[in-house]
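re the bet — no i am not wrong, look at it urself. input seq straight from the record:
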Amino acid sequence: MACPRPPTLDINNVGGQGQAQPLQFFLNNMNNKSTVWYVLLVLFAINTMNFFDRQILGAVGEPIRKEFGLSDASLGALGTAFTLLYAFVGVPLGRLADKIGRKGILAGGVFVWSLLTVGSGLAQNFWQIFALRLGVGVGEASCAPAATSLIGDLVPASWRAKALAVFMLGLPVGVALSFAVSGTIAKTYGWRAAFLVAGVPGILCAIAVLFIKEPKRGAAETHNIGERKRSGSPYKLILASPTMRWLILSGALHNFNMYAIGAFITPFLMRYHGADIQSANFVSMIVYGVMGAPGLLIGGFIGDALMKKRTNGRMLVGATAITLSIPFLYFALSQPRGATTAFLVLMGAGCALMYFYYSTVYSTIQDIVEPGLRGTAMAVYFFAMYVLGASLGPYATGLMSDYFTKRAAQISGITDFSQNALEPFRADGLHTAMYAIPILSVLLAIVLFAASRTVSKDIEKIQNWMRESAVEK
């Protein structure tokens, strides 16, 4: 049965009476078109370096593991170090983004994480690089809450999925560049050089942020309420939304999978399919990076298009895409050793569908809270999905890999469980562990379908409140 659009949310008339075209509203409420695109492109560049820097560890993790004599669990823990502090620091930074200028938060964060990424290349042992990755997490926590809050005030509701798709293109582009550049540098100059090279672009991005002119809060809304917020605890208000609770759970599941893939796809290709570090990273670049771009853009355009017909359209697009990704992920992992082309095609298709998630879910969060709480809402969402998902993905996958590695060794009659003795069995161990990804995707699809059942009522509720609280001009 069709889900009717609530009468209070007319996304084809987001600028109020007399503005039938969202694009006209979009241009009229900013200084000019070039200003809008400058902000979007700077935020895209920042997000590109955000994911470039965090993905370096996945690209060069195998030589780091061998140099420091690490298990897969320890290698995964380096990713956990980043995500845990990223999550905890993100909440106060999200609240700060709702109170002060967002470009200052962004500029400082980019500068800090770029310097600490360079420092990671100077680490001499596991604990030094662990500490430095904690610091990188602090810097990068500034990115998403401030940037998405800016975008929420930059464009009207009917364009948010597309605008956020541009911003989130930084994810696949940054990941793709990180795999390609870091893998190439590591093969020629060693893994340390990959970290050293990554710092300069980030510093340039920090400078570019200073030239952003922030839009006024709430300027792109049908009902312009400025910075006005509902009374009460911001956290209780955000978590009172059933849709938000479903999205938080979905974020934990999705980030578990995405960070498990990011951390171990290159080691998997090197161990199981016999690729060298450069070749493995080029395959990873296509699968996990390049294929994400069409997923984000197509997800954003389809999500916005279906949103015009039914207010749960974006959620249905995201849930359907995740459902379709499951067989691709499963059959990609089922390919025999050496079948890298088949793996690339199948895993690439699965990852492209997984990227639909970002365009549809991030824009939905902007739709179900008022402008003055969007930074906080994104920070709460990120806190949960990084603590419960991203931090566990690499570490839990590493633990499973170590377990199945030892089991494979035991089946072969090996009783010596030293790192060197287990090395021949690590390919099979990691291969088995990665089947957790399609299994969890089934649960993720169910959660997103559940969110599609509650989102219309939550959007109607916030639109009604904003209409009643609108500031008279």
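see?? Confidence is low (pLDDT under 50) at residues 1-31. told u. also The chain has 22 helices and no strands. so pay up
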